[in-house]
Fold this sequence. Notes:
Order of helices and strands: HHHHHHHHHHHHHHHHHH
CATH topology of the largest domain: Hypothetical protein af1432
Number of domains: 3
Largest sheet: none
Number of helices: 18
CATH superfamily of the largest domain: Hypothetical protein af1432
CATH architecture of the largest domain: Orthogonal Bundle
Structural class: mainly alpha
Helix content: 55-70%
CATH class of the largest domain: Mainly Alpha
Mean pLDDT: 93
Distance between the termini: 59 Å
Number of strands: 0
Shape: globular
Oligomer: single chain
Amino acid sequence: MDDLYDAHARERLVPEPPKRVLAPERTPFERDRARVVHAASSRRLAAKTQVVGPQSDDFVRNRLTHSLEVAQVARDLSRALNGGQPELADLAETAALAHDLGHPPFGHNGEEVLAVLAQDAGGFEGNAQTLRILTRLEAKTFDAAGESVGLNLTRATLDACTKYPWARSERPGPKFGVYGDDLPVFTWLRAGAHAQQRCVEAQIMDLADDVAYSVHDVEDGVVAGRIDLTALDVAAVGAAVRATYRPDLDDAQVAATLKELTAIGSWPLRGYDGTRRSLAALKNLTSDVIGRFCGAVQQATFEAAEGPFTRYRADLVVPEETLREMAVLKGVAAHYVMQTDDRRALMARQRELLAELVAALLDRDGAALDRQYAEDWAQAPDDAARLRVVVDQVASLTDASAVAWHARLIGER
């Protein structure tokens, strides 16, 4: 392995001897990727909502398929930036595979309700929950004191997984990357980094997520019959863009951005009709848009620095045009899929369900928790710590299991 990633980057919280099961021996970052792939938390992503619920259609994406697609985008972009250098690609891919592990049932809707319910325990944030899973909740390695250190990933991999490298108290807003009781491992993994500075591997993961999110959610909406790319309401899309993604974009800018996107050669000239030819055209558009975004970022990054594009040696550069186009595509999905009346009603019921589930688990003093969380409850020193245990349990559930747990526990009353 070259000096782009030194012994400090490859260090694990608990030292491990190399394994010689396979020849040639895997690098530390290849081992990290394998651990994330085989984690139970990764398997659960298959039954967690992306945009449309995973049970609603065989075609639409769930959190697992989304993560796989983010990983592919991250790996390809990493290889393009560093001339095929494998360690960067391994790190970025692993971070992408892990980036949604902390998402609770019902996607961002579930995240928002748990953030409110967990205020007295330090809040809830999907990325902070991902760090907690990787370093504590996912069982693999224990330290000399008998405490779980999760998957015991390398420092560089954990840093790559940290989209928001700050605690809630350090920066205003809903996004943060670590809870108070996980600060010791956070301090360890961030050793040598400037405060709140993201490594380039985390930047690649974040961009890959944005690219996949903006493009694939529109694709799913088209196939679900909710979006007609030949008849977009500019004013409605603009309102959705400003409400959630880019408050600074007026209708004229949104219209101009949509004009740029619709000028792409593979943009459809007629509505989606479910035929094989129509599906192929949609997939070609998806590929072209992803290539457009990643190509623009690669060019801008090369123009800004010579590299190498690893750790803190350089930053990813995302052109304003690319940011604007991604925001507008997100606005298309938001207006036609996430903000419809039927979707709002469903989301309201989901929020109610999670709130009732958290309350029911707290009422039972740990008796209804899975064994590993029941042990955490028994060791919790105060009410805030016990609330965190319940939130950990609920966040681990899939959409279907959250519904089943609610039916079982509320039915007992």
